[in-house]
Design brief:
By secondary structure, the protein is an all-alpha fold. The chain has a domain at 1-124: Serine Threonine Protein Phosphatase 5, Tetratricopeptide repeat, CATH 1.25.40.10. It is built from 18 helices and 2 strands. It has helices spanning 5-9, 23-38, 41-55, 73-76, 79-83, 91-105, 109-122, 127-139, 143-156, 161-173, 177-190, 195-207, 211-224, 230-241, 245-258, 263-275, 279-292, 297-311, and strands at 58-60, 85-87. It is globular, with a radius of gyration of 21 Å.
Protein backbone atom coordinates (compact mmCIF):
# COMPACT_ATOMS: atom_id res chain seq x y z
CA UNK A 1 0.00 0.00 0.00
CA UNK A 2 1.34 3.42 -0.89
CA UNK A 3 2.23 5.62 2.05
CA UNK A 4 1.43 9.13 0.88
CA UNK A 5 -2.30 9.33 1.39
CA UNK A 6 -2.20 11.84 4.22
CA UNK A 7 -0.34 14.26 1.98
CA UNK A 8 -2.95 14.18 -0.75
CA UNK A 9 -5.79 14.68 1.68
CA UNK A 10 -5.22 17.95 3.35
CA UNK A 11 -7.42 20.74 2.05
CA UNK A 12 -7.79 22.99 5.08
CA UNK A 13 -10.30 25.78 4.86
CA UNK A 14 -9.21 28.93 6.68
CA UNK A 15 -11.79 30.91 8.64
CA UNK A 16 -11.51 33.99 6.45
CA UNK A 17 -13.09 32.21 3.48
CA UNK A 18 -16.39 31.97 5.28
CA UNK A 19 -19.21 34.11 3.99
CA UNK A 20 -20.29 35.49 7.36
CA UNK A 21 -18.24 36.94 10.18
CA UNK A 22 -18.79 35.91 13.77
CA UNK A 23 -15.92 36.47 16.23
CA UNK A 24 -16.75 33.36 18.26
CA UNK A 25 -16.83 31.10 15.19
CA UNK A 26 -13.75 32.80 13.76
CA UNK A 27 -11.78 32.21 16.96
CA UNK A 28 -12.90 28.60 17.31
CA UNK A 29 -12.03 27.91 13.67
CA UNK A 30 -8.57 29.42 14.09
CA UNK A 31 -7.97 27.51 17.31
CA UNK A 32 -9.05 24.30 15.62
CA UNK A 33 -6.59 24.85 12.78
CA UNK A 34 -3.79 25.77 15.18
CA UNK A 35 -4.34 22.66 17.29
CA UNK A 36 -4.51 20.50 14.17
CA UNK A 37 -1.18 21.86 12.94
CA UNK A 38 0.35 21.10 16.35
CA UNK A 39 -0.98 17.55 16.28
CA UNK A 40 -3.38 18.15 19.19
CA UNK A 41 -6.20 16.34 17.43
CA UNK A 42 -8.70 16.00 20.28
CA UNK A 43 -8.47 19.71 21.06
CA UNK A 44 -8.88 20.54 17.36
CA UNK A 45 -11.99 18.35 17.17
CA UNK A 46 -13.45 20.02 20.25
CA UNK A 47 -12.96 23.48 18.76
CA UNK A 48 -14.45 22.54 15.40
CA UNK A 49 -17.37 20.84 17.13
CA UNK A 50 -18.17 24.00 19.12
CA UNK A 51 -17.94 26.07 15.96
CA UNK A 52 -20.27 23.66 14.16
CA UNK A 53 -22.79 24.04 16.96
CA UNK A 54 -22.70 27.83 16.55
CA UNK A 55 -23.10 27.75 12.77
CA UNK A 56 -25.49 24.85 12.27
CA UNK A 57 -28.85 26.37 13.13
CA UNK A 58 -31.13 25.41 10.28
CA UNK A 59 -34.36 26.61 8.79
CA UNK A 60 -36.73 24.26 7.00
CA UNK A 61 -39.48 24.72 4.47
CA UNK A 62 -43.09 23.68 4.98
CA UNK A 63 -44.15 22.78 8.50
CA UNK A 64 -40.82 21.25 9.54
CA UNK A 65 -39.48 22.49 12.86
CA UNK A 66 -36.23 24.39 13.20
CA UNK A 67 -33.54 22.16 14.58
CA UNK A 68 -29.79 21.79 14.99
CA UNK A 69 -27.76 20.12 12.24
CA UNK A 70 -25.05 19.32 14.77
CA UNK A 71 -27.53 17.51 17.00
CA UNK A 72 -29.59 15.81 14.31
CA UNK A 73 -26.78 14.71 12.01
CA UNK A 74 -28.00 11.13 11.68
CA UNK A 75 -31.50 12.23 10.79
CA UNK A 76 -30.07 14.49 8.10
CA UNK A 77 -28.97 11.37 6.23
CA UNK A 78 -32.63 10.89 5.35
CA UNK A 79 -32.93 12.24 1.78
CA UNK A 80 -36.43 13.65 2.27
CA UNK A 81 -35.39 15.60 5.34
CA UNK A 82 -32.26 16.90 3.60
CA UNK A 83 -34.45 18.26 0.81
CA UNK A 84 -36.44 20.27 3.33
CA UNK A 85 -33.45 21.87 5.06
CA UNK A 86 -31.72 25.11 4.21
CA UNK A 87 -28.52 25.87 6.09
CA UNK A 88 -28.40 29.41 7.37
CA UNK A 89 -24.61 29.51 7.67
CA UNK A 90 -22.57 27.76 4.94
CA UNK A 91 -19.49 27.85 7.17
CA UNK A 92 -20.83 24.66 8.71
CA UNK A 93 -19.77 22.64 5.65
CA UNK A 94 -16.20 23.93 5.82
CA UNK A 95 -16.02 23.17 9.53
CA UNK A 96 -17.21 19.62 8.88
CA UNK A 97 -14.48 19.18 6.27
CA UNK A 98 -11.84 20.49 8.66
CA UNK A 99 -13.06 18.27 11.48
CA UNK A 100 -13.17 15.34 9.06
CA UNK A 101 -9.52 15.98 8.22
CA UNK A 102 -8.61 15.81 11.89
CA UNK A 103 -10.47 12.50 12.24
CA UNK A 104 -8.61 11.32 9.13
CA UNK A 105 -5.29 12.22 10.75
CA UNK A 106 -6.32 10.17 13.80
CA UNK A 107 -6.99 7.24 11.44
CA UNK A 108 -10.70 7.37 12.39
CA UNK A 109 -11.77 7.01 8.79
CA UNK A 110 -15.43 6.27 9.47
CA UNK A 111 -15.86 9.50 11.44
CA UNK A 112 -14.00 11.40 8.73
CA UNK A 113 -16.26 10.03 6.00
CA UNK A 114 -19.31 10.88 8.10
CA UNK A 115 -18.18 14.51 8.36
CA UNK A 116 -17.45 14.71 4.62
CA UNK A 117 -20.93 13.30 3.97
CA UNK A 118 -22.45 16.03 6.11
CA UNK A 119 -20.44 18.72 4.33
CA UNK A 120 -21.68 17.46 0.97
CA UNK A 121 -25.26 17.41 2.24
CA UNK A 122 -24.87 21.17 2.76
CA UNK A 123 -22.68 22.02 -0.25
CA UNK A 124 -23.05 19.22 -2.83
CA UNK A 125 -20.84 21.07 -5.29
CA UNK A 126 -17.79 21.26 -3.03
CA UNK A 127 -14.86 19.62 -4.82
CA UNK A 128 -12.72 19.61 -1.68
CA UNK A 129 -15.19 17.46 0.25
CA UNK A 130 -15.30 14.90 -2.58
CA UNK A 131 -11.50 14.88 -2.70
CA UNK A 132 -11.15 14.33 1.03
CA UNK A 133 -13.81 11.61 1.12
CA UNK A 134 -12.14 9.89 -1.83
CA UNK A 135 -8.85 9.77 0.07
CA UNK A 136 -10.56 8.17 3.05
CA UNK A 137 -12.16 5.56 0.74
CA UNK A 138 -8.72 4.94 -0.76
CA UNK A 139 -7.23 4.18 2.65
CA UNK A 140 -10.16 1.83 3.35
CA UNK A 141 -9.33 0.11 0.02
CA UNK A 142 -12.80 0.87 -1.34
CA UNK A 143 -11.37 1.67 -4.74
CA UNK A 144 -14.68 1.99 -6.56
CA UNK A 145 -15.95 4.73 -4.28
CA UNK A 146 -12.55 6.43 -4.20
CA UNK A 147 -12.39 6.51 -7.99
CA UNK A 148 -15.92 7.93 -8.24
CA UNK A 149 -15.26 10.67 -5.68
CA UNK A 150 -11.93 11.74 -7.18
CA UNK A 151 -13.56 11.90 -10.60
CA UNK A 152 -16.39 14.02 -9.20
CA UNK A 153 -13.87 16.38 -7.60
CA UNK A 154 -12.06 16.74 -10.94
CA UNK A 155 -15.30 17.48 -12.77
CA UNK A 156 -16.13 20.19 -10.24
CA UNK A 157 -12.59 21.62 -10.20
CA UNK A 158 -10.43 20.55 -13.19
CA UNK A 159 -7.43 22.37 -11.68
CA UNK A 160 -7.44 20.36 -8.44
CA UNK A 161 -4.12 18.60 -8.99
CA UNK A 162 -4.40 16.53 -5.82
CA UNK A 163 -7.47 14.76 -7.15
CA UNK A 164 -5.67 13.67 -10.32
CA UNK A 165 -2.90 12.32 -8.12
CA UNK A 166 -5.38 10.58 -5.85
CA UNK A 167 -7.17 9.00 -8.78
CA UNK A 168 -3.82 7.91 -10.14
CA UNK A 169 -3.04 6.22 -6.83
CA UNK A 170 -6.35 4.37 -6.97
CA UNK A 171 -5.56 3.14 -10.46
CA UNK A 172 -2.06 2.16 -9.39
CA UNK A 173 -3.51 0.11 -6.55
CA UNK A 174 -5.93 -1.49 -9.02
CA UNK A 175 -3.02 -2.46 -11.28
CA UNK A 176 -3.73 -0.03 -14.12
CA UNK A 177 -0.26 1.55 -14.24
CA UNK A 178 -0.76 3.22 -17.64
CA UNK A 179 -3.93 5.05 -16.56
CA UNK A 180 -2.33 5.90 -13.22
CA UNK A 181 0.59 7.71 -14.80
CA UNK A 182 -1.74 9.48 -17.20
CA UNK A 183 -3.45 10.91 -14.11
CA UNK A 184 -0.14 11.89 -12.52
CA UNK A 185 0.78 13.74 -15.71
CA UNK A 186 -2.62 15.45 -15.72
CA UNK A 187 -1.99 16.54 -12.13
CA UNK A 188 1.28 18.19 -13.11
CA UNK A 189 -0.35 19.84 -16.14
CA UNK A 190 -3.28 21.07 -14.04
CA UNK A 191 -0.85 22.77 -11.68
CA UNK A 192 2.57 23.03 -13.39
CA UNK A 193 4.06 25.03 -10.53
CA UNK A 194 2.68 22.74 -7.84
CA UNK A 195 5.46 21.31 -5.73
CA UNK A 196 3.00 18.79 -4.34
CA UNK A 197 2.05 17.45 -7.77
CA UNK A 198 5.70 16.76 -8.61
CA UNK A 199 6.28 15.22 -5.20
CA UNK A 200 3.30 12.88 -5.54
CA UNK A 201 4.37 11.88 -9.03
CA UNK A 202 7.83 11.22 -7.64
CA UNK A 203 6.37 8.91 -4.99
CA UNK A 204 4.48 7.01 -7.67
CA UNK A 205 7.65 6.65 -9.76
CA UNK A 206 9.54 5.43 -6.72
CA UNK A 207 6.89 2.83 -5.98
CA UNK A 208 7.13 1.49 -9.54
CA UNK A 209 10.93 1.31 -9.52
CA UNK A 210 11.82 4.46 -11.47
CA UNK A 211 14.37 5.78 -8.97
CA UNK A 212 15.96 8.29 -11.36
CA UNK A 213 12.60 9.74 -12.39
CA UNK A 214 11.48 9.88 -8.75
CA UNK A 215 14.63 11.70 -7.68
CA UNK A 216 14.19 14.30 -10.42
CA UNK A 217 10.60 14.95 -9.36
CA UNK A 218 11.46 15.17 -5.66
CA UNK A 219 14.28 17.62 -6.23
CA UNK A 220 12.23 19.78 -8.58
CA UNK A 221 9.48 19.79 -5.95
CA UNK A 222 12.00 21.02 -3.39
CA UNK A 223 12.97 23.90 -5.68
CA UNK A 224 9.34 24.91 -6.16
CA UNK A 225 8.50 24.89 -2.45
CA UNK A 226 11.25 24.88 0.14
CA UNK A 227 8.73 24.35 2.94
CA UNK A 228 7.13 21.14 1.65
CA UNK A 229 8.09 18.07 3.68
CA UNK A 230 6.91 15.28 1.40
CA UNK A 231 9.72 15.34 -1.20
CA UNK A 232 12.26 14.94 1.59
CA UNK A 233 10.42 11.85 2.77
CA UNK A 234 10.52 10.49 -0.76
CA UNK A 235 14.19 11.20 -1.29
CA UNK A 236 14.95 9.67 2.11
CA UNK A 237 13.31 6.44 0.93
CA UNK A 238 15.47 6.46 -2.19
CA UNK A 239 18.63 7.09 -0.17
CA UNK A 240 17.77 4.39 2.35
CA UNK A 241 17.20 1.87 -0.45
CA UNK A 242 20.65 2.81 -1.81
CA UNK A 243 22.15 2.33 1.72
CA UNK A 244 22.95 6.04 1.99
CA UNK A 245 21.82 6.10 5.61
CA UNK A 246 23.35 9.47 6.60
CA UNK A 247 21.64 11.06 3.60
CA UNK A 248 18.34 9.42 4.49
CA UNK A 249 18.57 10.59 8.11
CA UNK A 250 19.35 14.12 6.92
CA UNK A 251 16.27 14.15 4.69
CA UNK A 252 14.00 12.71 7.38
CA UNK A 253 15.27 15.29 9.86
CA UNK A 254 14.49 18.05 7.37
CA UNK A 255 10.99 16.64 6.81
CA UNK A 256 10.37 16.65 10.58
CA UNK A 257 11.62 20.23 10.85
CA UNK A 258 9.16 21.26 8.14
CA UNK A 259 6.21 19.28 9.53
CA UNK A 260 6.43 17.92 13.05
CA UNK A 261 3.24 15.85 12.63
CA UNK A 262 4.89 13.24 10.39
CA UNK A 263 4.81 10.04 12.41
CA UNK A 264 6.20 8.11 9.44
CA UNK A 265 9.24 10.39 9.34
CA UNK A 266 9.99 9.72 13.01
CA UNK A 267 9.41 5.99 12.52
CA UNK A 268 11.62 5.71 9.44
CA UNK A 269 14.40 7.74 11.05
CA UNK A 270 14.09 5.51 14.12
CA UNK A 271 14.45 2.34 12.05
CA UNK A 272 17.59 3.63 10.37
CA UNK A 273 19.09 4.77 13.67
CA UNK A 274 18.43 1.35 15.20
CA UNK A 275 19.82 -0.43 12.14
CA UNK A 276 23.00 1.68 12.27
CA UNK A 277 23.57 1.07 15.98
CA UNK A 278 22.21 4.33 17.45
CA UNK A 279 19.76 2.52 19.69
CA UNK A 280 18.87 5.27 22.17
CA UNK A 281 18.13 7.85 19.47
CA UNK A 282 16.23 5.29 17.43
CA UNK A 283 14.08 4.25 20.36
CA UNK A 284 13.22 7.89 21.09
CA UNK A 285 12.06 8.39 17.52
CA UNK A 286 10.00 5.20 17.52
CA UNK A 287 8.38 6.07 20.85
CA UNK A 288 7.46 9.48 19.41
CA UNK A 289 5.99 7.88 16.29
CA UNK A 290 3.92 5.41 18.34
CA UNK A 291 2.62 8.22 20.57
CA UNK A 292 1.63 10.31 17.54
CA UNK A 293 0.09 7.41 15.62
CA UNK A 294 -1.05 4.63 17.98
CA UNK A 295 -2.33 2.56 15.04
CA UNK A 296 1.29 2.16 13.92
CA UNK A 297 2.39 0.39 17.10
CA UNK A 298 2.05 -3.17 15.81
CA UNK A 299 3.91 -2.26 12.61
CA UNK A 300 6.67 -0.54 14.59
CA UNK A 301 7.04 -3.53 16.92
CA UNK A 302 7.28 -5.93 13.98
CA UNK A 303 9.91 -3.79 12.24
CA UNK A 304 11.97 -3.49 15.42
CA UNK A 305 11.93 -7.27 15.76
CA UNK A 306 13.14 -7.65 12.17
CA UNK A 307 15.97 -5.19 12.76
CA UNK A 308 17.01 -6.88 15.97
CA UNK A 309 16.92 -10.29 14.24
CA UNK A 310 19.10 -8.97 11.41
CA UNK A 311 21.69 -7.82 13.95
CA UNK A 312 22.01 -11.22 15.65
Amino acid sequence: MLRIFSFILVLIFAPNIYSQYDPAVENLGKKGLEQFQKGNYDEAIANFTRAIALTSQLKTTGNALRNSFAGDAEAIENADLRDRISVIDPRTAMLYINRGNVYFSKNDLDSAISDYDRALAILPGNAGAYHCRATAWLLKKDYGRALADYTKAIILDPKLAKSYVGRGLVRLEMGDTKAAFEDFELGVKASPKSAEAYSYRGDAKRQTGDAAGALADFEYSMKLDKKLANPYLGRAALRSAARDYPGAISDLTKAIELDGRLANAYANRGYILLFTGHDADGERDLDRAAAMAPWMRDEIAANIERIMTAHK
